[in-house]
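Sample pair:
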Amino acid sequence: MGLDRARAVAVVAMVMGHTLDAVLSDAAREGPGMLAYWSLRAITAPLFLFVAGWAFATTVQRTGAQGVSVLRRYLPRVGVLFCWGYLLRWPGWGLPAFFAGDVAVWRHFLAFDALHGVAGALLLGTGVLALLGGRAARMGLLAALTLLFPLVSPWVRASVEGGGWPLALEQALAGKTSNFPLFPWSAYFFAGGFTGLGLALVKRVPQWAVMLGTGTALLALMALWGGDPRGSDATLVVWRLGLLGVTAGLAMLLPSRLDGLLGPVGRASLWVYVVHLPLAYGWSTFAGLASRLGRSQEVLPALGLALGVLSVSLALALPAKKLYRRWRELGREETSEPSADALPPAPALAREPSRR
């Protein structure tokens, strides 16, 4: 599937980008090739959010879930994502200050990263798709949210900076120490959801062509505008959505014979994220490559380390996801299997006749 290929590309780009960021030397970062890569690396997190929204909306629409069934299915996932997100930010190195209520340590702990961003956007998206049942209505509201979040982000940011917000909410909305606050980052999730619902309607044109064409059109629009796309949240989101369209379109062009390899990688994105982050950046008191090596590596050694982290992450994450899936399936079978007491008696004609 094109979605699985796009998710696999997002996973690989995420792991490679984080590892290079952790170990690549400052001098190596200034090389022409790395400067070009660093500008493209800006779409790694948006792509992660984009494909998450795409997978979410596609699954909800395909299963026909509406109302409470959407909430019942996805609210536990929201909780899992938040739990993993906060666990990965556990400040084991500063527990005395943490329990003493030190604001700096709590800002670190409550800051929104990619998993928090997906969780928050999924929570909002779950509410939207639970309220609306039709594809057109869902697409319309997802498109509106994609436009709304970047447009109101400056106002939200100014309001948060004005003070008076609870720290957790401040970090979720637009906290300075949050890498991926809800405003404007949720826009990429909503755009992915809109894309997933829209692509299902495309029949006569290859879906990769739709993605490439849309992405190219957005980039052309930004080029004609001529301003700095980083000048505002709205223009930056449009520019990145153009890059996302091109990237996703190219990923969908990958040969279908690779689906057996790329599919499991794409579907294990959460597991890979949880495994690779401590390896690259460390966790609690465990030192990752960022602490052990720092920014000390040239391009080729850094690429080798990135491939190593990717390999280790996949080697741990894929079997873990498979075991977890089997455990869940076993649990469903046990709960659905009727007990012996509940079995009805066998019909008389089905009983074995007496041999006496």
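Residues 339-356 have pLDDT under 50 and may be disordered.
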